[in-house]
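[SOLVED] Need 3D model of a two-part complex

Original post:
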Amino acid sequence: MKLEVGHIFINDIQFASESKIENGVLYVDEEAVKAIVLEDEKIKGVKFDIAKPGESVRITPVKDVIEPRVKVEGRGGVFPGVIAKVDTVGSGKTYALKGMAVVTAGKIVGFQEGIIDMSGPGAEYTPFSKLNNLVVVCEPVDGIKQHEYEKAVRLAGFRVAVYLGELARELTPDETKTYETYGIMEGKEKFPNLPRVAYVQMLQSQGLLHDTYVYGVDAKRTLSTIMNPTEVMDGAIVSGNCVSACDKNPTYVHENNPVVHDLFEEHGKTINFVCQILTNENVYLADKMRSSDWTAKMCRLLDLDAVIVSQEGFGNPDTDLIMNCKKIEAEGVKTVIITDEYAGRDGKSQSLADADPAADAVVTGGNANQVIVLPKMDKVIGTEEFVTIIAGGNEHSHREDGTIEVEIQAITGATNETGFGYLSAR
Amino acid sequence: MSKIKVVHYINQFFAQIGGEEKADYPAELRVGEIVGPGQALTQQFGEEAEIVATIVCGDSYFNENLDKAKADILEMVKSQNPDIFIAGPAFNAGRYGVACGTICDAVQEELGIPAVTGMYVENPGADMFKNKVYTVSTKNSAAGMRDAVKKLAPLALKIAKGEKIGASCEEGYMPNGVRVNFFEKERGSKRAVKMLLKKLADKPFETEYPMPSFDRVDPQPAIKDLSKATIALCTSGGIVPKGNPDHIESSNASHYGEYDITGVMDLTEETYETAHGGYDPVYANEDADRVLPVDVMREFEKEGVIGKLHNKFYTTVGNGTAVASAKAFAEEYAQKLIADGVDAVIMTST
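Solution:
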């Protein structure tokens, strides 16, 4: 399967009377996007704002981050089974608006939404501080339950992203990248001497606001399965979860999955990148055992030599991570796992909730319990009201001088476990 | 600005007194002298620090007269009141390494003066003291002196100045059980791919997180007669009286709560809720018995299935809470449970 991804660089976002992209500037008609968000009767009101790199701006509580894309050739549309109708994506041609994102924010859903600082020390910990962000601040109708509110905001973000992506349909990309993987036999013939490698992606599926959707299907109701790695580039996986901000995968991370991209870099040179394996992180022991059994079984069926396993979330999913690693290694397939750590504020505690000697190759996104002081910002998009209760905050998070003291787990993307960031620990 | 004052500790061999035959050389303070490896350290310090005294002690003497040697050396260090104490580097000399670790630990603990040492990773002194004293990793022989001093001197200066100490791989000390964050030059996925390629080629690679050995606890024997037992409910599911009076954090809790449920037959939406930030709270808030089953326990109590439900419950939030904190909470309230005559605990999670 072959996909060309055309990059259209967005250097600036401005509100205007007409939505369009011109000379790297995204002009947004506020009324048009407002109408798109308000299509959902569960959303009472919406405000839009723009946050640019280097500004004294804080966005919180952040729910999701999304990169607008549009499918210009080939089957299906962006976010299949969620926005576009169900059809296999990942081939043909897709344009992506690079350097920007749609960020959904507003009144808190659960406890686990995040902070994006556009400047200062906090900005170093979030990859989204480097983007021009169109922030969608939603206000739910009264009396709505958390999960209904989560869904409404999630879908509103996708609708806005698709609308913006459409603006690029007739443009010429600034650069184009091509990604191609092959059938099992075809790949073996093409690269007879290269080790066969796959990417095992564990999807957050603990339920109760901890969900991920694959082609619109709730991942906790799936068996482990395989995909072409190009499918995620068309939004085949979307985030629907409020796991700690630092190590959940916002939709942006799924669209730009760094393991997929870095394995493609080696594809045909040092490895044969065979496929992507999806598995879940359910809370029941039977589910954990079944899903890890299936993952290991597929690694063997596909005659893989090695895999990279990435985790999402922490604590309970640590057991899934270790089960996957142990069982895949037992099949004679070499593993590298990517995780993050909860070693306590002093860094002295056990980092993971589970361990096994088979996990001898670990990449870490750092200790999420590290404490950081975030300076007062000139402007807050959303509200700082909830920093005391979001995961990583505490009752003393608001300090008298206006600064905020939190663990970095409150920062969106700080310890991402697909290896999206540069943070690590020793 | 005055220079940072350093006291340097070395053995008889590096003081060029002699080898094994002189290992019984007693501790000696040489004020104002820079001896042996002290020269290399001084060079690295530049204008920032100076060795104000060198302490020389034979390895056998130190280890065979431990108490006296330690006391004498501590007195010597104290008399010089340095900003930092440096011992070694000891490379792969076992008794020297143990002496360096022991005396650094004592200087820190008893004099409150920071200390740093250096040795080869397989030196027995490393395993004994690397978690207590910053221990720079060196080669296994004195041929690695230049390299050792290049790491030892800057680390000593940083510690003396009270600067933030980076991760072990940045500063060159042995991992000491304290996880320290830092930014890598390559993103995590790239590092994972590189590690994978090395593992595939059977080349050496370095994991970023060595797996710990786990503390396994054997379960207690079963209760013989439940109908006479006092059972307590405990939870890491964050159930607290409405309003979370003790402000237990939604993640990485710093404390636990103890709440009286004398006469409480049922946890209701009006009276209890969860403080836990790791799951959708709707169902727990609607009926906290779903997490902390007081209602069912009361029924069992009435039916005589259990002797009685303990009148207090202990609760915290398990979401991202450090294992060390959880262990400390349980150690404390387990004593209270024992003192109150509780026979068994039902611990619920989420």
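Edit: Chain B touches chain A through 58 residues (CB under 8 Å).
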